[in-house]
Amino acid sequence: MPDIVEVRNLTKRYDGGFEALKSVDLSIREGEIIALLGPNGAGKTTLISTICGITRATGGSVTIGGHDTVTDFRAARSLVGLVPQEINLEPFETVMNSVRFSRGLFGKAPDAAYLERVLKSLSLWDKRDAKIMMLSGGMKRRVLIAKALSHGPRVLFLDEPTAGVDVELRKDMWEVVARLKADGVTIILTTHYIEEAEAIADRIAVIAKGEILLVEEKSALMSRLGQKTLRIELAEPVTQIPPALGAYHLGLEGGDLLYTYDTQTERTGITSLLADLQDAGLQMTDLQTHESSLEDIFVSLVTEQEAGA
Fold first, then answer.
1. How far is CA 186 from CA 32, 58, 91, in A?
2. If you classify domain 227-291 with CATH, what class do you get?
């Protein structure tokens, strides 16, 4: 698919010299869901705000749908919907009026049928005449999405969309995002919940200290960097690793042996390990495998970046 958002050499430097973004390059494909992961202060919100034109970049460029966000701001911004972290809604306004007002801000003509479709897709249609203050936190999040979609954008930025909502509502939101993608909307998601990215993203971008560490297909990333750990439960727990097994670089936990291996190599070494285990006089009672999660990979990447800083 073609790229709908192009970020090139984007830099944001504040007075005092702090660089929130350091020569960021990022291409976002039309119709995909890309998750932007990073610890607090990594630059996620700054990057989104700069792409959307809320924050002015110090250097570099951003184009959305071929429109430069500085020289052709109105055309670029009309293609974008932004759902911020904070729930900042007029409490005494109704859902429908709030969404209708957002559409008008973009100079769009009234379109009751379109807004009805948006509200129904977010399970808000029956709440259209309810005042914002009467809604739950999860429903208010949905109103924010409805407002962001009110003018028919092609790109939707979701900045921590499930922050502060329970697990059930979070999964409901994932379904909403999946439906938006099915409708052809490109989605950029920032999140602290690793399982959120693992569940719904097509690609993962990891940012730390204002730098993009990698951008990769989720499945390829987990396959390339993922490792498996084999837990070997013994009939008689051990307190130290036998010298005969030293070449395997085993770990020790609760009397069990831990063997970590790369899933991409032709030979894992498990067969020879089990044979040497028997030769060492150790009797195995159970085997369990654990595969690296996206969280394991994320923590590893950020730790490496901080160590090299």
1. 5, 26, 29
2. alpha beta
